[in-house]
Design brief:
alpha/beta, binds 5-O-phosphono-beta-D-ribofuranosylamine, single chain, seven-stranded mixed β-sheet
Length: 192
């Protein structure tokens, strides 16, 4: 990976499947001087993902892959051809294959809406509420061979309030995600 200092920024792809609020947030961050990354590509496994509109709005290349076996090979080739050095998963609802992860070993990070290692997988807010947790939050972590289990880069914690529902919690955690993801990326490349 290139140095984050000076003019050269790390060529980054963001993978999404849905709304893309984290994508939007990362795009805004990437435009700042202090950002070590430049978002060169938005990838989705869902051609109807709302977040793809942000790629259009900011004139960033976008590409849809189904991520089945054959298609995944095309995705890998495309990323290599476009000299992508770093991948941020942001609401990407597909589990990447071992082969894919090996190709980009140590270069893929993800954001997850819980304080990992608690509540890996889906429905994190509902499960945290059901278990009467006092706190929840979000985690940015490396992607490794096991789901939501890679080395943790950064976490943000919030208190769960008496009247919280999965919807209110999702909203409040998302706010923290938008603070945490740029911080995690800055932290990762701060000593390059
Ligand atoms: C976020 O809560 C993220 O942590 C999870 O999926 C959600 C994506 O939201 N992995 P958005 O598409 O970025 O708005």
């Amino acid at each position: 990976m290139k140095k984050s200092s000076g003019q050269i920024k790390i060529k980054t792809a963001v993978f999404i499947s849905g709304t893309g609020s984290n994508l939007y947030n990362l795009i805004k961050f990437s435009f700042t001087k202090k950002s070590p990354i430049k978002i060169c590509l938005v990838v989705s496994n869902n051609s109807k993902a709302k977040g793809l509109n942000f790629a259009n709005k900011f004139k960033i290349k976008k590409k849809i892959f189904k991520f089945d076996k054959n298609d995944e090979k095309l995705a890998i080739d495309y990323l290599i051809k476009n000299k992508i050095e770093f991948i941020c998963l942001a609401g990407f609802m597909h589990i990447l294959s071992k082969n894919f992860k090996n190709k980009f070993n140590g270069k893929i990070i993800n954001i997850h809406p819980s304080l990992l290692p608690k509540y890996k997988g889906l429905n994190t807010h509902l499960r945290a509420l059901k278990n009467k947790e006092k706190n929840t939050g979000c985690t940015i972590h490396y992607v490794n061979s096991k789901l939501d289990s890679g080395r943790i880069i950064l976490q943000k914690k919030i208190k769960i309030l008496k009247n919280d529902t999965p919807i209110t919690l999702k909203k409040r955690v998302l706010k923290q995600e938008h603070i945490a993801y740029p911080l995690a990326i800055t932290k990762l490349f701060s000593n390059l």
